[in-house]
Amino acid sequence: MSLSPAPACIELTHGSGGRVTAELITNVFHRHFDNAWLRQGNDYAIFTPPPGRLVISTDAHVITPLWFPGGDIGCLAVNGTINDVAMAGAQPLYLSAAFILEEGFLLTDLERIVISMAAAARAAGVPIVTGDTKVVERGHGDGCFITTTGIGVVPKGINISGDRAALGDAILINGSMGDHGVAVLAAREQLHFITPPQSDSAALHSLVAAMITAVPELHCLRDPTRGGLATTLNELAHQSGVGMQLTEAAIPIHAAVRGACELLGFDPLYLANEGKLVAICPAAAAETLLATMRAHSLGREAAIIGTVTGDAQHLVQMKTVFGGSRLVAWLTGDQLPRIC
Amino acid sequence: MSLSPAPACIELTHGSGGRVTAELITNVFHRHFDNAWLRQGNDYAIFTPPPGRLVISTDAHVITPLWFPGGDIGCLAVNGTINDVAMAGAQPLYLSAAFILEEGFLLTDLERIVISMAAAARAAGVPIVTGDTKVVERGHGDGCFITTTGIGVVPKGINISGDRAALGDAILINGSMGDHGVAVLAAREQLHFITPPQSDSAALHSLVAAMITAVPELHCLRDPTRGGLATTLNELAHQSGVGMQLTEAAIPIHAAVRGACELLGFDPLYLANEGKLVAICPAAAAETLLATMRAHSLGREAAIIGTVTGDAQHLVQMKTVFGGSRLVAWLTGDQLPRIC
After folding, report:
1. Which end of chain A, N or C, is surrounded by fewer C-beta atoms within 10 Å?
2. Where is the PurM-like N-terminal domain (chains A, B) (predicted)?
3. Are B44 and A13 inside 8 Å of each other by CB?
4. A6: pLDDT strictly greater than 70
């Protein structure tokens, strides 16, 4: 007679807080995220931060499908929150991760996700130091949701905020727009491409560190995720009380993304990105910033895409490739739900 | 012709990251959580912590029903994470909140929850400084899930951890066991009581502050939430490599909880609590700690319930009210799923 095999699926008892929860934490989360904080076995992590201002940011991740070309919900949850922290100009220090799992979710799938998170955290040098696991009944969740929260420290003298864009500032991005959105769309709709688009999911904190070293007077940073570049620029224009003038021809968009958008009626400026940032800096520093970004592996296709203007209505305008002018409005409706 | 009325339900577009998301954030979250960090409009909050060691803790909340006697998911999400931070002996400073909403969830219900969170945060003096909102399709979530993360600072000289219980230490609790579990059970199963049990949901940080001032040599603190007192004591015994000897008669349990448990076959030692803590301290300090706890409004029914022993198997034993001895094992299975 042999013992019954371990359950291959998440069951409600994995969320009970009892012995089965403890085993899941030890065998899956602690095993892969392994670090001194988790080994302590407390419901919290204690750390001594470097002196200075700290940043906290949080993101829930509900992307579907859980795996897509170029990434998965795990690396996305790590990189996405690292990026939110980095957009304050901060060096990310620690992450927490809270899982909401659906009864019936395969344990092997959970482990794949956790391994991906662990690899992303290790690559970024930002450990996952505390967490939580809840389980909901079948049909009351959707496989796996992950909420990550990040803590970082802002270097002295750095003052980056969405309300600091000023008249005449240059607007830069670190590369092509829409890759994540189209990659997820392709995975979801099982579209076939000759060169399949890949998500750009990446942790941007080392790029940001290089940028603030080269141009400490950087005014704004923001990652154009949900809502895409268009929405991010409108947010920044609104927050800073300025307008913006873009040059469409300067915005890099990969051929596969452009093709998919034309075919399916999407606008790449509204598609989500997961390894991209918008930077706004004084015009005089723009070429230095551009060169710094291009010298970094995550900024090779960086470009100056526009200028901050004095529009009282805080509109984002774009000179089109055909020489006309187009209003780049906020996203209304939802092009692609559950993109991150 | 009039404009169409604002949607009364959460729609997918509330999670798009576009204009409708921005309106939800402004009109609901910022309006009620209102503070200087949120008003900045960034995806993060910046703060300068007091010097010293910091604590981070996170919890996902998936409780059903969302409203129950004595509380709701909103105050629970605030108090629960404040308590996790406080269990390090820390003073909680800031919270983040990430919402996963199901398409079709009533906006009025969301606002009720947000108002409850805001009230709990204000009462505790711990602002919600950053957040996130995602929306999933109808049938892929369950109304409202909330993940909160807390940051706190540990006072100098305090060294509380689950691995510090030592031979001869006293084990205390701050009041009756099982109230939250039975209150949620009653709401879920629509049970009727003459005196309906109320959840004990409460923020324990001011009680903890009084306790560490009176007894700075406190060894362990933990909140017996999921899995109840039994599981929490087993965790601590395991983590510290000790055994425990409890006295059943010393453990306060309200009559309604005892009655419901007898009727329904539950064991109150395994029911979740949301305003309770276990404290372990040197025996010599136990009476001082007890008096301090009893002098606080959240510790009036505090009791010394047992002693740390030298059991090599790390078992938790209990002298029953009938004079016998009973093993208090880890929770196996799940008495009540989605209790927090």
Report:
1. N
2. 42-154
3. no
4. no
